[in-house]
Design brief:
Blueprint lengths: L2 H4 L13 E4 L21 E8 L5 E7 L12 H18 L4 E10 L8 E12 L2 E9 L5 E11 L7 H19 L2
Antiparallel strand pairs: 1-2, 2-3, 3-5, 4-7, 5-6, 6-7
Length: 183
């Protein structure tokens, strides 16, 4: 067996659950690659995004690979914060708000071991004018919570987002069509 084979990284299956509709997120919306979803390396962050059919909230399965290491054997807090930032933002977009982050706070409850498959949940908690307040958390299959977060996002005009709006609208239409066919 070669050294390359010994060091091969195996990314686990990141499947959803019944009642979750997968979100197809493009690698890029503009000139660059999306920071989380556009990463093609096999050793960093891998995720699959979903919307819960029951309440339209955001949920994801995310794996943190060896290139997310901070403290030896554990995920760097910045990697966790980036995933929560994206999750909370997507949760607002799914509810029809075209937002950008103004402030996020992350409470680190437990160190997250490298290679862990996690569930990420995020939802809109409240809206006050242009301010959209979100909540998020990351936990494992046994329910251990690693991080919780709060976000303040600002709703801005959709035309400022270009191609991103087309992707959001296409997903919402396909979900509406699916919901109507389930009747």
């Amino acid at each position: 067996m070669s050294d390359q084979d010994k060091n091969a990284i195996i990314v686990p299956e990141l499947s959803g659950e019944k009642g979750w509709t997968e979100l197809k997120i493009p690698d890029s919306y503009g000139n660059g690659r999306a920071f989380i979803t556009g990463d093609r390396s096999s050793d960093r962050i891998k995720g699959r995004y979903f919307q819960k059919d029951s309440d339209n909230s955001f949920v994801a399965r995310v794996w943190f690979g060896p290139s997310t290491e901070g403290p030896a054997g554990f995920v760097h807090g910045g990697s966790v914060a980036a995933v929560l930032d994206e999750a909370m933002g997507v949760s607002a977009w799914l509810m029809g708000y075209t937002v950008v982050a103004a402030k996020i706070t992350v409470e680190y409850r437990k160190m997250l071991p490298l290679g862990t498959v996690t569930t990420v949940e995020a939802k809109v908690a409240s809206v006050n004018g242009r301010k959209v307040i979100t909540k998020g958390k990351i936990y494992n299959k046994t329910g251990i919570i690693y991080t919780e977060s709060d976000g303040l996002f600002i709703n801005i005009p959709p035309e400022r987002f270009g191609e991103m709006i087309k992707h959001r609208d296409a997903f919402q239409k396909s979900k509406q069509d699916k919901d109507e066919s389930d009747l």
